[in-house]
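It is worth pausing here to work through a concrete case rather than discussing structure prediction in the abstract. The textbook approach is simple: state the sequence, then state the predicted structure, then interpret. We follow exactly that order.
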Amino acid sequence: MKRREFLKAGGVGLAASTVAAPAIAQSMPEIRWRLAASWPKSLDTLYGGCEYFCKRVAEITDNRFRIQSFAAGEIVPGLQVLDAVSNGTVEMGNTALYYYWGKNAWVGPYDDEKLGFVKVAKYYYYPGWWEGTGQGHNVINIERWNALPKAYQAAVTAASNECFTWVTGKYDFVNPPALKRLISAGAILRPFPQEVLEGCYSAANEVYSDLSKTNPHFAKMYASLTAYRGDSLMWMQVAELSFDSFMMRMRTRT
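Step two, the predicted structure:
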């Protein structure tokens, strides 16, 4: 009797499995997207980040959601990526959103070396205050994003976070030796004068203030940023005070 009951229960379990499998398959449809990048393939950290992102999305979704990356110029020019995403030419892109303010910059010594910096400029100034991070932005057509299963949306978010770490970590690794090679090739390293940095800081704050008055979306983001910056500064000051107190105690003991 027990054996028959076990087989009966097992049969129910098998039937449930056969019913569940198609449902799982339907919730994981095969989707193919194209990603247009603002970077040439020679910038193998920025464009390499796009390839890394696409690879991780495919791995996370068991290859059911695949995104193919295209370098600048293969589908659209590098500075037309945002338009291509907006009008549906491609589903998504990887770019730097400040490019659409009419700016055009690269990210540190490694990219500058690849682009032949020493052939066009003699002096290499630091710090690159305008370039807070070597990270691009993933931009996605809103209609295509909303049509994605929630699991695929989560995969894109997770892969984007991983990509941020990968790109930033690679720049931390490759920039110092690239800077040495630039100097060896004849570039002269110079710091921006303090008055130049302060002038740039003041001018930037004026722009942010003007934008906040006319653009509610920017004002909201900027308020969040300034609040975070204020908290960070406070904790940095606390850390400095703690370190100074520690050093004072150490000197007293000796």
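Step three, interpretation. The chain has two domains: 30-192, 193-254. The chain has nine helices and six strands.
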